[in-house]
Amino acid sequence: MTDWKNPPRLFIPGPVKVLPEVLQQLARPTLGHRGKEYTQLHGETVSMLKKILYTGQNVFLSTSSASGVWEGSIRNCVQMDEKILCTMCGAFSDKYATVARANGREVDELKVDWGQAITADMVDKKLAAGKYAAVTMVYNETSTGLTNPVYEISDMLKEKYPEVLVFVDAVSGMVGLPLHFDKLGWDVVFASVQKAFAIPPGLAVFAVSDRAMEKAKTVENRGYYFDFLEFAKSGAKDQTPTTPAIPQIMALHYVCTKLLEEGMENVWARHTKMAEYVRQWAKDRFDLFAPEEYCSDTLTTVKNTRGINVAETIKALQEKHNTVFGNGYGKLKEQVFRIAHMGNIDMNDLEEILGWIDDEIK
Ligand SMILES: Cc1ncc(COP(=O)(O)O)c(C=O)c1O
Fold this sequence. Notes:
The protein has helices spanning 20-26, 36-52, 67-77, 91-102, 120-128, 150-160, 181-184, 210-216, 228-235, 246-262, 264-285, 310-321, 347-361; strands at 9-11, 58-62, 83-88, 106-111, 134-138, 140-141, 146-147, 165-169, 188-192, 204-208, 287-288, 299-303, 323-327, 336-340. With 362 residues, the protein is of the alpha/beta class. The strands form 3 sheets. A 7-stranded mixed beta sheet has the order 2-10-9-8-5-3-4, sandwiched between helices. Strand 13 (323-327) and strand 14 (336-340) form a beta hairpin. The longest helix is centred in the last third of the chain and has 22 residues, at 264-285. The structure holds pyridoxal-5'-phosphate. Residues 14, 65-67, 92, 138, 142, 169, 171-172, 192 line the site of pyridoxal-5'-phosphate (PLP).
């Protein structure tokens, strides 16, 4: 039986390593969620998140994982008779389309092979040929270790299709990769805290543009749990519509303070440095799965060119070092493996795990 009291060191692409001082935040005495202590905690956390996301618009905390906001973005901001363009380049961007359809919306797909990026040109061509209310994108496709060129795509969208709403899944990108919400002109962005925020799971952070909030007022049947207007109403009082995951919010407050002390540019540079180190290791021994220009700075997906038994290697590291990394996701199992370098994972951690993998593949 798994010994959950002696958990493995995590190099899977989320959840990732949590610092002891962050864990301590989760153990603080709880607060009443309508009391003044909570509203102070909430208000300060949201203010810091606005700085982290470079936005003066709306930021909300959802006691759910980020998947809930996939659904929320569709249900709040797209009418039943409007069409969505879903850009698809891996398991999670594919899932966004599934969620849009599950909520009864019509979807057109812009699909590339797993490991390829979505480019501004591709999105431009698709949007030119149809009428869409919204486009969905994944910033960092965790199943393939690929970062889409979202800044280029967003520049094109602002210039040529300013009326189209832009929904971005930044689950494994937020904090680890540059994200200037207002400048990018995005309408909804979201992430779970167990990725680069490096907090145990149970909470999602999301931002919504003012115009998307206006649109939500015109959309019927938004549901309740992810109703953006409910979030805004409670947010105005520095609260959430329902009882939130207060321990995670205490941890988030702590992490946001630290991120702002470090400075976001430095946080992003730290992720790039870790990524470059892992990419070099991968190129020396295997190959990168994604084209190098699109390789992610929060995780590396290594192409298993040597045909190693990935599952056995993971098992060996777990047995010898109580450490785990990620096998390929879904259909990529054994063809690739994934190593996270986000949040509080550091260069020493990476030297250790890569050394241990080296020991196994000699
Ligand atoms: C890019 C991306 N989107 C969405 C999700 C779903 O996130 P959650 O399970 O936290 O809802 C994940 C999870 O790994 C992800 O990597």
